[in-house]
Structures are given as C-alpha cells and as structure tokens.
Amino acid sequence: MKRSVIRITGIATAALLLGSGLAACSSGDGGGGGSETLRVTLVNHVWTDIIKEKIPEFEKESGIKVEVAQFGEDQLSDQYNVKLNAGSDEIDVMMYRPLQEGKLFAKNGYMADLSDRVSENADWDWADYQEGPVNSTTYDGNVVGVPIITEQEVLYYRKDLLEAAGLEVPKTMDDLLAAAEQIKNENPGVAGFVARTGKSAAVTQFSSFLFSYGGDFIDKDGKASVNTPEAKEAYATYGKLIHDFGPDNVSTDMSWSEAMAIFTQGGAAFYTEADSLYKNATDPANSKVSDTVGFAPIPAGPDGSKAYNVPSWALGVNEASGNQDNAWKFIEWATSQDMTLEIQKAGVPGARTSVWDDPEGISTYPADLAEAIAISTKNGIGHDRPLVIKVPEAREIVGEPIVVAITGGDSDAAADAANKAFQALLDDENK
C-alpha cells in the first residue's frame, strides 16, 4: 500500500467535541515557536477514520493546520524504524502500540515526557484514565503516551448450548473445564472450547489465564517467571481446554480470525477473545450464532478473574519534534472526554473510566458485554505479553509451552525450558 498523506483543511462544522484545552489556543500561535503545520502519523483504524472527519473542527478552533500520514501496521513500523532512528523531526504526533514497541521507543528516547502536560489541565482529567492502560504508557515513572483504544479479554459463549445442557455461565476455571467437557460429549461435532493456538498469537489470550492463576511473565524482581507452579497450571489448563475439549484435529497455528470463524459458524460453545472483536460474533451477516451469543468475564482462577486490560494503541509526541506544544494540543483534543465518548459509541473501546460509567458510553454494546468489560477494567492487568524490547522473540519463547500443552505434551518441562530461554533474553536486554 502506498504512503497516504491526507491534507485536511478547515471545514466549518460544529465544535461540540472540542477539548477544553483548545479555548486557550490562539489562532496561528504555532505552539511556542513551533510550526503552524502539525504532522500527525496514524494507523489504519476505525479510530483514525473518526478523528480524520473531526480534524477540521480542531483546525478551525486552534488555527493549526494538520497533515495526517496514514499507514497499515507494517508500514507504520517501517516508517518509525527509519525516521525515529534517524532522529527526524518530520513526525510530531505518533500513534503507536504501547505493548509492542512502547518500551523500545521510550528507552531509545524517541518519546517526549508528557508527565507535566497530562497533569496541567484538570478539566481534561488524567485521573479519569484506567490504571492498566496508564501503566502501559508510562516508562520509568514518566508518562510517554495517552491510551486511546483498549482491549479486555472476555468469555464468548453459546446461550443455547448452555441452556440445553442445564448449565450456568462458568464463573471459575473449573466450571469452564467441566462445562466444555459436558457440551462436547453431548453435542457431536461441536467443540466445548476454542481459542487461539498459534505460538505467538495465543500468548495474549493465554495471559488472562496466567494472571487468574496468580502468575505473570516477569516477577517483581524482573526475573522470568513462566515456570512457577501458577504459570504451569495456567499452561496446563489452557492446553487441556483445547486438547481435550477443542475442535477435532485442531491446528496449532490459529490466530483470532480462524478461532472466531469456528465459533461464529457454530463449532464451539466457549471462546476466549478480545472484546474489541465482538461484532464478528453478533453480526448476522457473519455469524450463524449471532442471536444466541453471550458474554461474561474471564472465569476466575485461584487468584480471581484477572483479564488483561490493555491499550492497543496510544498517542505520543516525538521527542525530536520542534512542535511539541501544538502536538499536545492535538492529543488533548483527540482524547477529551467528549471525543472519547463519541468514538466509543462507534464501537472503539476507550480508556477513560467516565465513558464506561456513562450509560451513553455503553449504549451501543450488548448489556452483558458491557458488564463483563466493567469487571475486566476494574480487575484487569495492564499487559497481555511480556513487557520487553524484543517482543516478537519473547512471544515465541513463552508461547512454546502453550503449543506443547495443546498437543498433549509435557507442558511443565516446556515451561522450564521457556523460562530459561526467556531469562537469557532478559539478561541480554539488561546488559
């Protein structure tokens, strides 16, 4: 896909969603000596589509011209690798993935410290942001990004199959195992459970199992911890659900799209996945089970129900930018309470507590999904993969025991081997 640069000029539209901080922006003030043209780099996403439509309002009110460069995820990474490594000032505002490249960008000094800026406008209200996403956009105590899109893992399930089996919605992992076994036994051709199985792809969804069993990828001392008793039990449970009660002849390379297809075509009773994908299951055009899909929190393990609550995307400011004041004005506007509410109503989950507490903010969501998300955001953990620089390599390592468990192998031994390899990666990064 060719690089797309979008020039957006001032179209007179209602300023309903303008952030409170814009009132202080004088037309053409350039942001403390910065350029009057702001360069914003965004990824292809529904959030981006909505913001692009609203930008003329920002331009009209602030007097700042905005140029948007928009890319697919791979192209975006290529752009950042080239320009940020070169110290280029051609990017002012940057949309980035806190859990994928956030630590690398912050450690390399690519991202401006926003700590003072997020606290200076009480009306904008940094305290309104959920703890998990905030932790993932903070590095060494400094705020380097503002979360704009969140995801939580929830349990998708078939109401009709539970009703026929006389079962309640599983509240614990033991309940889930028992229900998956019963439904598979009573419904030939229907799996009790399905989820991602690919070594790397499954890591994010496995993480909620890990947290609920009381484990994590890295312990409080910064050491690898994927071979603790808690982690081993989590690996075994995730693997057993798919190996014993999953689809027949299940592959070990499924990402969300393959697992979702099995669920939406009526092939499974339970499915754990990101809430952001729920419309795939509830849209009658895509789902044969749309009228019977239910949602619930991740079943509780020994440490409770602890799903991930993560920022999949955030906005940051390029440290090399000479236009940081205007960059912050844009972020403040794009992440205001009103704008976040508007975008969430369009189906993009936000990171502000207020939009989830607002009945209007959940008006477009199934009621049981909104309830499950509320629990996940309250108890959620702010990461769904190891928080390291070499994220792809780490996911391959900690994902290996998942595949071993799914295929019926010795997942305890695999966890021991993975822990050794993961610790070596951590040691290498800390040199």
Automatic annotation (TrEMBL):
Protein's UniProt name: Carbohydrate ABC transporter substrate-binding protein (CUT1 family)
Record key words, sorted: Signal
Pfam family, one: SBP_bac_1
Annotated InterPro entries: Bact_solute-bd_prot1, SBP
Transmembrane stretches, start-end: none
Xref: CDD domains: PBP2_TMBP_like
PANTHER family documented for this protein: ARABINOSE-BINDING PROTEIN-RELATED, DIACETYLCHITOBIOSE BINDING PROTEIN DASA
Stretch forming the signal peptide: 1-23
